[in-house]
Amino acid sequence: MEIETLMDNDLRTGDETSPMFLKEIEKSKISIIIFSDNYASSPWCLDELVRILECKRTQQQIVLPIFYKVDPSDVRKQTGTFGEALFNHERKFNDDTEKVLRWRAALREAVVLPGYLFDHGHVSQLIHRVSEHISQLLNRNYLKYEFNYPIEIECRVQDMHDLLGIGDPDVRMVGILGDGGMGKTTIAKAVYNSVAHKRHKIGVNSIVGRIQVMKNMMRRKRVLVVLDDVSRKNQLEKLVGEFNWFASGSRIIVTTRFEHVLDNYRVDLAYKVKKLEFDEALEVFSSNAFPSSRLPDDPDYEKLATRLEDVH
């Protein structure tokens, strides 16, 4: 999943926050607020904070505050540099006292949100922690809204998680085996989406470029590779190469209809896709065919379902 970022100075013009930038805030899935020592001195930042919190209330936007060498109590109580800045704003905007009141209320609202406090250490460590957190949050929402998998698929994804052993230090290849139409690709996609934020993903156009990237970069990165619908052993040899290409903790998922493909290569474990029971298959079908994700309450549909069950 690609993450596009927008800095708060990308669209600023003049002395006020650009309307275009406020529109970009509304389109965002997550906003990061960095409270620094001089944060409250900027009307831009305070206007953006008000809009961000509006989006949190109306659009369920994720908001993550970071207190960068700032005491959260100064933000909440509006003391220290925050108190000084707001006092100056009250003098400057004495003809629009409601504006400053909105800013004060927004600061009190934001300070109680879960976030990060940074008062010492390396900034790179903070960036890494925040990046991991954001990836997990966005991936969780991506799965929730874009891939609303039926419980039957989730159970099979959990089985795959057990085989993959995410977090173990070895390099592991796991196969997904089953006939066409059994849901191998769907399971692989669901597994990928559930763990991809913990791995590096790289897209390469050519075979030569891919091999070079594999050899030069994969040894230093923990990766997740998914190979879908493999039919011959030599495909694995060309696409995966040797296990020593991969850094410790990497995982490779292979979906195939042919058991010999897995037997003839270094596939550690294989998950044989179980045939869905009729009720499970009907639920998966309904979730894709109907807006309500269930069979419509109609006698004709009930008759069709009964006939299908008899055939099944």
UniProtKB/TrEMBL annotation:
Residues 1-111 form the TIR domain. PROSITE patterns: TIR. SMART domains: TIR (SM00255). InterPro entries: Disease_R_plants, NB-ARC, P-loop_NTPase, TIR_dom, Toll_tir_struct_dom_sf. This is TMV resistance protein N-like. The gene is LOC103335384.
